Task: inverse folding
């Protein structure tokens, strides 16, 4: 037992010595380590002092660079917005420039006929035509007009078109004037009415017809233009008129995500336009 205790003691002493030599430096090694750590710490301190001294210049450089970058981005964004606005304005002027009612010459001829036969209706209808031209040339330069102005233009248009036949035409109108001060883009509805007169062959009173409906609910406008479609291919007066494609583009520009336009030509005997717009 004594021998075993002695062996364990000697083995433990030897193991401690080996571990101490392996993992713990000698005194002279400690000095070398301390000098190395001191040099490293001194180098780090010099680096930190250099960085600290350079910091104001770095902050100034990056700050000015960031400021210029933000200014550049803002300037480009403003230029893009301005360019988009100018392009839209140019496109709107181009679309408006195409508005030239094809009924103008026919209306003048019809009024002339009334004057020849000395009809009492001649002065009244001439005044309506004058009002329509004044509206197109002057008042339509505004981005928006009161709804009552647009309704007046529509009524005058229909009245002048009705002069085509002294017996009257099969045209039905339901126009609500309960919200006259709502603002709407000018000449936005008339192309649909113009299209109905243009393609319905309304002169055939017994077989063809037109229905115009307009109503408002608070700030929402509902508009419908329905017309019969004559049998066989029929097209007249291809010159003039704004065209439905033009109206669609105007709606996209003026009322993005604030309108719903449905054009239904699925029935071969009926053409229907339904429009809903959120007005101001």
Result:
């Amino acid at each position: 037992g004594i021998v075993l205790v002695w062996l364990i003691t000697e083995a433990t002493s030897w193991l401690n010595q080996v571990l101490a030599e392996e993992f713990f430096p000698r005194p002279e090694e400690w000095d070398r380590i301390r000098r190395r750590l001191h040099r490293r710490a001194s180098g780090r301190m010099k680096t930190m002092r250099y960085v600290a001294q350079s910091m104001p210049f770095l902050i100034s450089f990056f700050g000015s660079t960031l400021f210029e970058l933000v200014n550049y981005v803002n300037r480009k964004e403003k230029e893009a917005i301005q360019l988009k606005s100018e392009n839209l304005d140019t496109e709107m002027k181009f679309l408006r420039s195409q508005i030239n009612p094809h009924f103008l010459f026919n209306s003048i001829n019809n009024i002339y006929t009334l004057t020849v036969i000395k009809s009492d209706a001649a002065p009244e209808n001439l005044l309506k035509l004058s009002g329509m031209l004044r509206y197109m040339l002057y008042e339509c330069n505004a981005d928006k007009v009161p709804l009552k102005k647009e309704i007046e233009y529509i009524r005058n248009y229909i009245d002048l078109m009705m002069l085509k036949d002294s017996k009257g035409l099969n045209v039905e109108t339901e126009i609500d004037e309960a919200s006259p001060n709502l603002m709407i883009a000018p000449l936005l509805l008339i192309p649909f009415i113009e299209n109905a007169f243009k393609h319905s062959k309304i002169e055939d009173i017994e077989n063809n017809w037109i229905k115009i409906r307009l109503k408002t609910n608070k700030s929402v406008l509902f508009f419908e233009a329905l017309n019969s479609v004559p049998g066989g291919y029929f097209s007249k007066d291809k010159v003039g008129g704004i065209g439905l494609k033009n109206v669609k583009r105007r709606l996209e520009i003026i009322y993005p995500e604030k309108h719903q336009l449905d054009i239904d030509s699925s029935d071969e005997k009926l053409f229907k336009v339904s429009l809903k717009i959120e007005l101001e």
Observations:
- Residues 236-241 have pLDDT under 50 and may be disordered.
- The beta strands are 145-146, 171-175, 183-184, 210-217, 220-228, 259-264, 270-278.
